[in-house]
């Protein structure tokens, strides 16, 4: 494991115990967490994207703010639901944000996950074409977006303005961004597709399939298949692979109060309201040495180059800085990680 980052869902709710009671508080605190993570030597600061929920929704403003306050740490998403996106407008936003960051953007995109809205993308104006599913539409949007950020001509020019007829690219362009796009994959089949397309692989604490084997082993199968197909597809660069984990080292009474009940956590199998079963990964909670030992045995963590630790952002900046410090000092070094400076 070469890199470690945090993943925030950006929750906010005016309820007892929440330190992020409003959307503004959640956004400002996300920027402050990126600053704290960089000071601790973390390699990445990532945000989850959800619509119609009290969570992070539109990522580019907060990513640009994070970029303006940091200088080294990678900034990314895990993931943007491409069913909702205008791919050309997104290409402009992504390029501008990447330029502000100095080329540190790592964009995770995908079909998205189950959500509160019944017809969310249609509400935003995006309806699958005839014969398409919403997943097909997300992939089509992704293809248009990826071509746009490589500078492909996407609009016919007006000869009265340009003096000739050409196909215009969206501007600005940010060199290298096209190699920093990740596909959020929940199955082995979508991991295969991501490899065929030449995108990095982002796999979370949820797989939308279950074969009866432990979560980490199933995820390791997904990663192995992805790398095999990547080689077979003839891509020249080395791909990146990230996995997400809930990691809660317990070092004081407050940690115990929040996460002591998660000691001995196991995988869960259940339904997301769609056909088939899904497998959820366990929470790694307990004494730091035990958490480190258990993570070191996680075969998918061993196979990935990047570990994203999910953080309880609603508990506030101070607590999450404490949590990240505990991970950086007591857990991650046992996985072969060293802080970036």
Structure description:
This protein is α/β, with parallel strands linked by helices. It has a single domain (3-156, 165-335), classed as Luciferase-like domain (TIM Barrel), CATH 3.20.20.30. The chain has twelve helices and 14 strands. The protein has helices spanning 23-39, 59-69, 87-101, 120-123, 134-149, 159-162, 188-197, 215-233, 253-259, 288-297, 299-303, 317-331; strands spanning 3-8, 44-47, 74-81, 105-110, 155-156, 167-168, 181-184, 200-203, 206-207, 241-249, 268-270, 278-280, 283-286, 306-311.
- The portion of residues forming beta strands comes to 15-25%
Estimate the global geometry from the Cα principal axes: globular
CATH topology: TIM Barrel
CATH class: Alpha Beta
Q: Residue share in helices?
A: 25-40%
- Helix segment tally: 12
**What's the alpha carbon Rg, rounded to whole Å?**
20 Å
Provide the structure class: alpha/beta
Question: If you average the pLDDT, what whole number results?
Answer: 95
Can you list the strand order of the major beta sheet?
1-2-3-4-7-8-10-14
CATH architecture: Alpha-Beta Barrel
Unreliable sequence segments: none
Number of strands: 14
The run of helices and strands is EHEHEHEHHEHEEHEEHEHEEEHHEH
Set down the secondary structure blueprint.
Layout: E1 3-8, H1 23-39, E2 44-47, H2 59-69, E3 74-81, H3 87-101, E4 105-110, H4 120-123, H5 134-149, E5 155-156, H6 159-162, E6 167-168, E7 181-184, H7 188-197, E8 200-203, E9 206-207, H8 215-233, E10 241-249, H9 253-259, E11 268-270, E12 278-280, E13 283-286, H10 288-297, H11 299-303, E14 306-311, H12 317-331
Helix pairs in contact: 1-2, 1-12, 2-3, 3-5, 7-8, 10-12
